[in-house]
């Protein structure tokens, strides 16, 4: 992701736009969470970066114009919603383009590119475990997977997730529980087959 633009402070409805250094610190802390969510919503790492960048630009434009209501504590929910909507728009555009082109080659290249850009980058788990977890998350219904990603890696509350996805807090909690149960079954089956060593 590129460094944030040099943003001079300007008054907004909620106060002052942060300095470039403050943006950099905020993005360093929140960027990985947002990128993981964007990656879960899109088909490739590059699309996730594009969607995240577009969402951040929308936030900055709203801050500059004074349209953004609320302080910095509302940035994350706004960005989660913007990422989700931009990812849906991108997916629709890609689907139309794909139908026009009817190209098998594009699918093969996307699969290869995805192999080189894992969702999870951590030193604490082996490559095999990461691949199995990523594959298991992809097999879950999207409504469960997105709640799990936002809750665990995005560190969102069920109330925040409900607001972002336009569902009730209880529905978010239920999807989280059902998703974890399904993930546990999938990983348990993989361990019994010997595909997983955890």
Core attributes:
about 200 residues; mainly alpha; 2 domains
Structural summary, described in words:
This protein is an all-alpha fold and 198 residues long. It has two domains: 12-117, no CATH class; 123-198, Winged helix-like DNA-binding domain superfamily/Winged helix DNA-binding domain (Arc Repressor Mutant, subunit A). Helix content is 71%, strand content 2%. It is built from eight helices and two strands; from the N terminus they run E-E-H-H-H-H-H-H-H-H. The chain has helices at 20-41, 45-65, 75-101, 104-115, 127-139, 142-153, 158-165, 169-193; strands at 11-12, 15-16. A two-stranded antiparallel ribbon has the order 1-2. Helix 1 (20-41) runs antiparallel to helix 6. It is globular and about 55 Å long. The two termini are 33 Å apart.
Order of helices and strands: EEHHHHHHHH
Shape: globular
Query: In total, how many domains does the architecture comprise?
Result: 2
Unreliable stretches? 1-14
User: What about the largest sheet?
Assistant: 2 strands, antiparallel
Strand content bin: under 5%
Tally the helices: what do you get? 8
Could you tell me how far the N terminus lies from the C terminus, measured between alpha carbons in angstroms? 33 Å
What is the tally of beta strands? 2
Helix percent band: over 70%
Query: Can you list the strand order of the major beta sheet?
Result: 1-2
The radius of gyration is: 18 Å
Mean pLDDT: 80
Derived structural class: mainly alpha
């Amino acid at each position: 992701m590129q460094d944030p633009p040099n943003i001079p402070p300007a008054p907004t409805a909620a106060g002052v736009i942060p300095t470039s250094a403050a943006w950099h610190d905020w993005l360093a802390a929140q960027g990985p969470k947002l990128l993981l969510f964007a990656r879960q919503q899109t088909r490739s790492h590059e699309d996730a970066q594009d969607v995240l960048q577009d969402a951040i630009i929308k936030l900055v434009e709203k801050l500059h114009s004074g349209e953004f209501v609320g302080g910095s504590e509302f940035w994350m929910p706004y960005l989660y919603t913007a990422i989700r909507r931009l990812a849906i728009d991108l997916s629709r555009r890609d689907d139309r383009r794909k139908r026009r082109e009817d190209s098998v080659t594009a699918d093969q290249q996307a699969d290869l590119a995805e192999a080189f850009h894992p969702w999870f980058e951590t030193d604490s788990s082996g490559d095999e475990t990461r691949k199995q977890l990523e594959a298991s998350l992809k097999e879950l219904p999207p409504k469960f997977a997105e709640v799990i990603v936002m809750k665990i890696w995005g560190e969102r509350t069920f109330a925040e997730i409900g607001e972002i996805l336009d569902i009730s807090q209880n529905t978010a909690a239920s999807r989280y529980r059902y998703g974890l149960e399904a993930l546990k079954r999938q990983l348990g089956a993989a361990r019994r087959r010997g595909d997983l060593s955890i």
